[in-house]
Amino acid sequence: MAIMEIPSKYDPTTVEDKWYKYWLENKLFHSEPDEREPYTIVIPPPNVTGVLHMGHMLNNTIQDIMIRRARMQGKNACWVPGTDHASIATEAKVVAKLLSEGISKDSLSREEFLEHAWKWTHKHGGIILEQLKKLGASCDWDRTCFTMDKTRSDSVIRVFIDLYEKGYIYRGVRMVNWDPAAKTAVSDEEVNYKEEKSKLYYVRYRIEGTEDQYVTVATTRPETILGDTAVCVNPNDPRFHHLVGKKVFVPLINRLVPIIQDDYVDMEFGTGCLKITPAHDENDYAIGLRHHLEVIDTFNDDGTLNEKAQLLVGVDRFEARKQIVPMLEKAGNLVKIEDYNNKVGFSERTDVPIEPKLSAQWFLKMGELAKPALDAVESDQIRFYPSKFKNLYRHWMENIKDWCISRQLWWGHRIPVYYLADGSFVVAENEEKALALAKEKSGNQNLNINDLRQEEDVLDTWASSWLWPISVFDGVCHPENKEINYYYPTNLLVTGHDIIFFWVARMIMSGYQLRNDLPFKDVYFTGMVRDKKGRKMSKQLGNSPDPIELMKKYGADGVRVGMLLCSPAGGDLLFDESLPEQGRNFSSKIWNSLRLIKGWEIDPALAQPEHSRLAIEWFKIKLSEVILTIDDHFSKYRLSDALMLIYNTIRDEFSGWLLEIIKPAYQQPIDQKTYDEAIELFDQVLRLLHPFMPFISEEIWQLLKERKPGQSIMVQSWPASVAPDAEVTEKFEMLKEAIAGIRAIRKEKEIANKEPLSLCIIPGEKGYVPELNPVLVKMGNLSELKEVNEEVSGSMSFRVGTSAFYIPLGSAVNVEEEISKIEEELKYTMGFLDSVMKKMSNERFVKNAPAQVVELEKKKQADAEEKIKILKERLESLRN
Question: Of 699, 551, 549, 546, which is closest to residue 13 (Cα–Cα)?
């Protein structure tokens, strides 16, 4: 049979584009409800502003591995892709683009701005999804969703109205985290705290009715003094008992404010006196409510001072801090300044310091929604991998606050609230329904649409993505449709633990609220991708590689392997370019195995050699063990372990042993039976490899034998295991040791592999396997193999188990070297026996260890004792 010509090198660039196009053309990613068991994953929708980064690579590689394996298991695999409209980030991008063109957002109407935002989204929004295709992501692209497309938008509005009517949504004035750059409220979870070197300013307030008596307060924010409405002391602090009931003048503006008492004040911090600015500090606000203090908001939405400040109007808050310090000093109110380290909250979206601000916002009550969502995780109806994140989840859910769901933006889902002239409002999904409700509420049938004003705010972005597992199947607006009933609940969510509050918890809450069911069964938390020094990857540090460039250099399969080899669930990945290089080298190894097999000429008339039969029988059993272990790894989401096992199986067992054993002699043909069985085993290992390395596994699978049009490895059956046989694999491991022993002697004595050797064996109870002699002869290139009763003089020797192996070399043997080698082996074996004996003499170990573990230790003891006996006899013989 003719030899197939295989290119000498594997070229991922042409292969990857070819097969991805083939998969798409044959609709191999597409899913429709049918009689099979569904397996569903919804993608964590990346921001439309985003481009592929290393975190996306890891997250989506894991999802692709799971969905590809499920497909091969015969399940109806459905991976739904999509993007998130990302209100704050996208609006910031559009505003910046407009400014670069000389256009201010303030100069545009809402409709004009949204027109620009949609144009920007249509131009940039699909970039990251196209990049995911380069990675090999087998998403059902026909199902691509966007959080602001019609179905998802209708879902968001429908849920808002439903929750409002159930009493969960309300409007209130609360202290919120204000982002002065984005000019919107952000949630507690969108605030990152950073350690900063600050200053502590000691400022004195003159006591009313005195000329030279003061109280001194310490503050890190002197610019907020202009909004002070009280000074507070602890009622248990004897230093200030004489001040109770008195008032002080606020520096620079001479506003008269009371001295109050509250247990909140830390007597040890600063001077023990606290200035109270209810509009600009959450704790001050709480004190203000308790003591009925006036609230004076001195900041504009952009962080500049307003008219209520009376001074520095229009000046930015940080510039105002610089300017007010010399003003306080000149007025005689500044006592001293100290260096001070404190934590400052920064907006996750714009990275500017957060400003606590009183604001009228829309809130969602969370207490009742949280209960079933907490129970689902506590009872393991929803399983976390790793489970340690249950503690973090529990802590947040037990201390949950109402969710501020409104944002002061234009890009997003506009809140469906319509105000009447008297300030009352109605909630409706469109203007027509709002007008009908307004007429009913006001009793005025003459109202028209111009009498209503829709709420300017939009909903928090997470108010759409918390519905994602339901809304992607249109399960909100059509709760009984065929798709939601088939695909929901989904099987797996893969996400970062940094959004366990933002997204994971909220999806679980919405699942139970809207469908009385969990949204997913398992949650796999990925770690953070860091550089090899453990640093977080960032553009500023310049340590974050471009994933697209990595894939061009190492191939998508190489990068996938590189990322997964050291990526435990929930653990950070220390990324180094040597990892995808290792993945690329592995591709070359597999490719060379294909070239080796396809380079053999086949002779159908040849009988199968015994060494080939034995090797194939062994590898089938070995592969069964591997399949069982890989399946177990998958069940526990130990994907790195599963990949490492298939990596070692292909590199060492398949390529290093099986192919070498069955390889025909130089320029000799191979028999048909061995060739066919080798091809079938190659097919099996490629199937195990496919979820991890989809492109090269498809390419080689297609080249193994002739395939029909439309066929693909990705829809072949996942390999099934037969009953493993530990005895067979154990015997083969001993055979490998014997072959390694022969190779070591060849290397030491510089004997070429092509030169045949004689081998004599003193069989022991363990170590020599006569039925595998055909393999031993082939792999050792033995001209003679015989059993003997005593050691062979003038030979090099080694031991496997309790069996002794001798290679006669005549005068070439150095007796002193042989004695030294055996003494070293004897020392090691006696040390090993000593460690076993210590373990066996430990009563606690013998009593508590499983019976099979104790039996194994006893077996180790017996084997070591037998080996020591043989080594001593050999030494005695050599010395005599």
Answer: 551
One-letter amino acid of 689: L
User: How do residues 46-64 score in pLDDT, each as one tens digit?
Assistant: 998 888 888 889 999 999 9
CA distance 781 to 759: 10
Determine contact, residues 26/532, Cβ cutoff 8 Å.
no
| Confidence at 126, pLDDT banded by 50, 70, 90 | confident
Residue 349 to residues 183, 352, 413, 495: CA-CA distances in angstroms? Answer: 11, 8, 18, 19
Residue 746 has pLDDT above 90, yes or no: yes
CA angle 492, 494, 500 (to 5 degrees): 110
CA distance 631 to 343: 47
Cα–Cα distance between 345 and 355 in angstroms, integer? 8
| pTM, to two decimals | 0.85
Question: DSSP letters along 808-871, please?
Answer: E-GGG--HHHHHHHHHHHHHHHHHHHHHHHHHHT-HHHHHHS-HHHHHHHHHHHHHHHHHHHHH
**Long-range contacts made by residues 656-662, C-beta under 8 angstroms, separation at least 24?**
657/615, 657/619, 657/736, 658/615, 658/616, 658/618, 658/619, 659/593, 659/596, 659/597, 660/779, 661/611, 661/612, 661/615, 661/775, 661/778, 661/779, 662/611, 662/612, 662/615, 662/616
Closest CA to 621 of 734, 724, 733, 730: 724
Nearest to 739 by CA among 782, 691, 796: 782
**Residue 727 · residue 36 · CB < 8 Å:** no
Output 820 or 306, whichever has higher pLDDT.
306
> In sequence order, what are the beta bridge partners of 169?
364
Please give the torsion angle defined by the CA atoms of residues 769, 773, 778 and 782, in that order, rounded to the nearest 10 degrees.
100
- Looking at 458-515, list the stretches that DSSP marks H as alpha helix, in order from N- to C-terminal side: 462-465, 468-471, 482-487, 506-515
Exposed / middle / buried, residue 310 (Cβ in 10 Å: 0-12, 13-18, 19+): middle
The Cα–Cα gap between 271 and 475 comes to: 59
Kindly report the number of other CB atoms within 10 A of residue 379's CB atom: 8
Write the CB contacts of 658 (distance below 8 Å, at least 6 apart in sequence): 615, 616, 618, 619, 678, 681
CA distance 279 to 263: 20
Q: Which two structure tokens, joined as six digits, stand for 847?
A: 């009593």
The SS3 assignment for 536 reads strand
User: What integer pLDDT is reported at residue 811 of this predicted model?
Assistant: 52
Structural tokens at position 389: 């994140």
Amino acid letter for position 176: V
Average pLDDT (74-86) is 96
Type of residue at 34: D
